[in-house]
Amino acid sequence: MPATPAPRRTLAVLAALPLLALAACGYGSQAKENTEQAIAGAPKVDGLDSVRIGYFGNLTHATALVGRQEGLFQKELGGTTAEYVPFNAGPSEIEALNSESIDIGWIGPSPAVNGYVKANGKNLRIVSGSASGGVKFVVNPEKIKSLKDVKGKRIATPQLGNTQDVAFLNWASEQGWKVDAQSGEGDVSVVRTDNKVVPDAYRSGSVDGAWVPEPTASKLVAEGGKVLLDEADLWPDKKFVITNVIVSQSFLKEHPKAVEAVLRASVKINKWIDANPEKAKAAANAQLKADTGKALPADVLDPAWQSIHVTDDPLAATLATEAEHAVKAGLLQKPDLTGIYDLTPLNKVLKAEGEPEVDDAGLGVKS
After folding, report:
1. Could you give the CA distance from residue 320 to residue 190 in angstroms, rounded to a whole number?
2. Percent of the chain, pLDDT > 90?
3. DSSP letter assigned to residue 31
4. Where are the alpha helices (DSSP H) in the chain?
5. pLDDT, tens digit (0-9, with 9 covering 90-100), for 345-360
6. Are 137 and 231 a contacting pair, CB within 8 Å?
7. Per-residue pLDDT tens for 110-162?
8. pLDDT-derived band at 33, boundaries 50, 70, 90
9. How far apart are CA 52 and CA 246, in angstroms?
10. Are 47 and 58 spatial neighbours (Cβ–Cβ below 8 Å)?
11. What angle do CA 348, 354, 357 make, to 5 degrees?
12. What does the alpha-carbon distance between residue 105 and residue 125 come to, in Å, rounded to a whole number?
């Protein structure tokens, strides 16, 4: 008889870091459409009735989008139901993880770091990579024709202290420009604007450009914008983490086989995406339509998809560098990220799949 699932406790929600203080979108209830059917007759993984998976409805979370659309998480979870909770913002997903409203989730590096630091390293672990790339600096070509023209302009980033905000502030600093990180005022004006609103802000002329993830970047290009810089060009081998997989430490400890099942699905999904890019792109777009009510048009979807690369490797060294950039910008005190990674379950899965193991850049759990 399978073990009795550990009780789902309700914990106090940890507040988001001040640098990420914004109106976080609520994660809502788990409606029927967010629950798959467990495989009849299959055993429950770790005796669990369900595993609750969080992700964002954007293309940088392609692994989660494709996996849900194609039923590949459910396939690995067998008799345990895969439940899904889409999010619009990193802080709300961290809150959900802290309150045990979700068990595992796809999320960007900055909210993962901020959540880990705020909880003094006691709430989450990064257990896998998911995607690299997919971030561009798009500008109005009538106002900005070269990098030097950016000075004095109004540039949108998604939110104060998020991954793209930190990247733009660091890049501006490297140009020798001074910008107050909190207010966004200085040699360049940084306008924190939700990704959903950025195309309208660009169209109205209230911003002159934006450092944003896909598909927002390609939406701006479709509006006549020009890609001035692809962030991948700033990184060694053009690789940097844009999405990781996190899990609550309690869930990882109590249900390691369930975590392995989700990671096994993730590894297989990434392999399938690489082997079937057109089918995977269609699947991701279908899930986006299901989540947001609107599919992406081809002139946005195609270039956005090409710039995102799925990967099991968490690219841990680049996460450490991103954290250093946040410290340099004055948005984060120097953090101790030791223990933020536990790649043991992922490396177990990779070995079983005949794939090379990945490295935590010295930031893994100490035995």
Report:
1. 24
2. 83
3. -
4. 62-69, 72-77, 90-98, 109-118, 163-174, 198-204, 216-222, 249-254, 256-275, 277-292, 298-306, 316-329, 344-352
5. 999 999 999 999 999 9
6. yes
7. 999 999 999 999 999 999 999 999 999 999 999 999 999 999 999 999 989 88
8. low
9. 12
10. no
11. 50
12. 11
Peptide bond into 215 cis (omega under 30): yes
Residues of the chain with pLDDT > 70, as a percent, come to 91
Report the DSSP pairing between strands 308-310 and 124-133: antiparallel
How far is it, in rounded angstroms, from Cα 236 to Cα 86?
32
Cβ-Cβ contacts under 8 Å for 363 (sequence gap 6 or more): 316, 319, 320, 337, 338, 339, 340, 341
Task: Compute the distance between CA of residue 283 and CA of residue 290 in angstroms, rounded to an integer.
Answer: 11
For the chain, the average pLDDT equals: 90
Q: What angle do CA 97, 103, 106 make, to 5 degrees?
A: 75
Joined together, the tokens standing for residue 80 give 């345990």
